[in-house]
Amino acid sequence: MALPTADFEFVTSFARRSAAIIIEPGKDYFVESRLSSLASSNACSSVPEFISLLRKTPPSNPLHNKVLDALTTNETFFFRDIAPFDALRETIIPKLITQRAAQRSLSFWSAASSTGQEAYSLAMMLREHFPQLSDWAIQIIGTDLCSTVLVQARAGSYNEFEINRGLSPALIKKYFTQDGKIWTANAELRRMVDFRPMNLIEPWPRLPLFDVVLMRNVMIYFDVPTKQAILRNIGATLQPQGSLLLGSAETTLNLDASWQTVGLGRATVYQPVGAK
Ligand SMILES: C[S@@+](CC[C@H](N)C(=O)[O-])C[C@H]1O[C@@H](n2cnc3c(N)ncnc32)[C@H](O)[C@@H]1O
Questions:
Q1: Which of 78, 139, 197, 215 could form a disulfide with 166 if both were Cys (CB 3.0 to 4.6 A apart)?
Q2: What kind of architecture, by CATH, is found in domain 5-71?
Q3: Which atom of ligand 1 approaches the CA of 201 most closely?
């Protein structure tokens, strides 16, 4: 049965207002399927009944966060779309090592990190390929608006399906410990990453100036003014020679003229205009 129009519109405007997530008209099935288990766990016999409960619940109630968690798409995996990691390993990080030799510090941001695979991939890559960084101050920050994914990211724990998406048996053996059907990142890897809550459309907290920002597969959910505002904010929190890596379906082109593109292998890297 189709969702009543008023219910669908209530949920789509909630998603837009809270996270800038656009749910296109006609995606009733998406809303139904994402909210059905919350409906059951809140003793509602249908999604419309659950939405009417939500309407009566004040925004400060944790139920609103749970709905937002349910509506976000958290798909991710280790070394996703390998090209950006190749560009980091072959060109971006070797160059940064020269540029930052005096400070001996590097900072990375996995914005919209989901369950943490991107941040841990970066940590493993640094350990595997750049032993000379072992006594540098390395900061890898992961942020996401969804609280449930952050719990998993901080734990660094993955099930059999997740651990086998993108990792070789050798990396699993070296960096994870297995307990039954759960693999957990070792303490050294977990110490390298720091996961924090952050909604990209709310006022940004104080952040360090980053050398590299990975903000992949999240702008696709936003409208043009939201993408433009986020790109402006990223420009302000990136080192002048820093690099921004976006998802393969995302770009700064026709959105924000303050970025230049550099092709590195199969990856496109975005840098502030004038960066060398
Ligand atoms: C598809 S995942 C991408 C994960 C990872 N960056 C990757 O490419 O594999 C998108 C993530 O963006 C997060 N997200 C969606 N809207 C957001 C917002 N307004 N602020 C912060 N994170 C958001 C979701 O919670 C989700 O974890």
A1: 78
A2: Orthogonal Bundle (1.10)
A3: 19
Rounded distance from Cα 118 to ligand 1 centre (Å): 11
Residues with CB under 6 A from ligand 1: 19-21, 72-76, 80, 112-114, 118, 144-146, 149, 199-201, 216-218, 221, 247
pTM: 0.95
Assign residue 238 a region (left: φ > 0; alpha: ψ between -120 and 50; beta: otherwise): beta
Q: Is 271 in contact with 244 (CB distance < 8 Å)?
A: yes
Q: Give the pLDDT of the chain (276 residues) as one tens digit per residue.
A: 679 999 999 999 999 999 999 999 999 999 999 999 999 999 999 999 999 999 999 999 999 999 999 999 999 999 999 999 999 999 999 999 999 999 999 999 999 999 999 999 999 999 999 999 999 999 999 999 999 999 999 999 999 999 999 999 999 999 999 999 999 999 999 999 999 999 999 999 999 999 999 999 999 999 999 999 999 999 999 999 999 999 999 999 999 999 999 999 999 999 999 888
Q: Where are the CATH 3.40.50.150 domain residues in the chain?
A: 83-272
User: Of 249, 243, 16, 10, which is closest to residue 109 (Cα–Cα)?
Assistant: 243
Which CATH number fits the domain 83-272, given the four candidates 1.10.3720.10, 1.20.1300.10, 2.30.36.70, 3.40.50.150?
3.40.50.150
| Residues in CB range of 230: below 8 A, 6 or more apart | 200, 201, 215, 219, 222
